[in-house]
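U., I forgot to send this yesterday:
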Amino acid sequence: MKTIRITENFDSYPNGKDRRTFTKGEEPELSNEHADLLISKGLAEDLAPAARHTTSKKDTDA
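Result:
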């Protein structure tokens, strides 16, 4: 599962059969496959890299 941020309004079919409306600014948790598809189409951005790119004070003092 992957959490993404929706960058524009659109409809999609996360499970392949049921339509879902996504709204700009929404941060849904979707399957990796569907999240990657939306990111590759420019409809969403991955939130994980920002979370992984944090540094602690200990890291900067070394």
